[in-house]
Amino acid sequence: MKVKVNDNLYDIVIVGKDIVKVNGEEVVAKSFDDCIVIKGTEFHLDFEEEGDPSLMIINGMAYLVSRSYLTEKVSDEIRAPISGRVIDIPARKGYRVERGQVIIVLEAMKMENEIKSPATRWIKDIVVSKGQSVKAGDILVTFDSTRQ
């Protein structure tokens, strides 16, 4: 199966119970409820939007995942992966953010969760403010689709 994550294309073959091949490299991957362990590293998973493409939050970073490797759509918004309170907004409206750059920091269950940009984009609007409570699925940031 071909899977596109942000702008990266992966060829994935399930070999056995805990063995997968990613671009020809055999990898041990164990799956639990909301966690996957790959080569001994834990990745905590949250799916935010069903469909193709879908938004997946892995260790606090947003990824656009698609089984259709021809899909070129990049999400124009970031939604809260969990309910919580906005404690910091390092990014600003009109700024260009790089892939992996922290945009919003949410506090939930006494933990800080960094919400990072899934791609290099221009911020059209920041819909929330510092101190605001948000629910899972609320829009936090919108991107300007006319600027790359």
Structure description:
With 148 residues, the protein is an all-beta fold. The protein has two domains: 2-66, no CATH class; 77-143, RNA polymerase II/Efflux pump adaptor protein, barrel-sandwich hybrid domain (OB fold (Dihydrolipoamide Acetyltransferase, E2P)), CATH 2.40.50. 0% of the residues lie in helices and 54% in strands. It has strands at 2-5, 8-14, 19-22, 25-31, 35-38, 41-47, 54-58, 61-66, 77-79, 84-88, 96-97, 102-108, 111-116, 121-126, 133-134, 139-143. The strands form three sheets. An eight-stranded antiparallel β-barrel has the order 1-2-3-4-5-6-7-8. It has a four-stranded antiparallel β-sheet with strand order 9-16-14-11, with no helix packed on it. The protein has a four-stranded antiparallel β-sheet with strand order 13-12-10-15, with no helix packed on it. It starts with a strand and ends in a 5-residue tail after the last strand.
Mean pLDDT across the residues is 79
The CATH architecture name of the largest domain reads Beta Barrel
Gyration radius from CA atoms, angstroms:
16 Å
Helix content: under 10%
Tell me the CATH topology of the largest domain.
Answer: OB fold (Dihydrolipoamide Acetyltransferase, E2P)
Helices and strands, in order, run as EEEEEEEEEEEEEEEE
The outline comes out as globular
Tally of DSSP helical segments:
0
Query: Which residue ranges are poorly predicted, with pLDDT under 50 across at least 5 consecutive positions?
Result: none
Number of domains: 2
Order of strands in the sheet with most strands? 1-2-3-4-5-6-7-8
Q: Give the biggest beta sheet.
A: 8 strands, antiparallel, barrel
Class by SSE composition = mainly beta
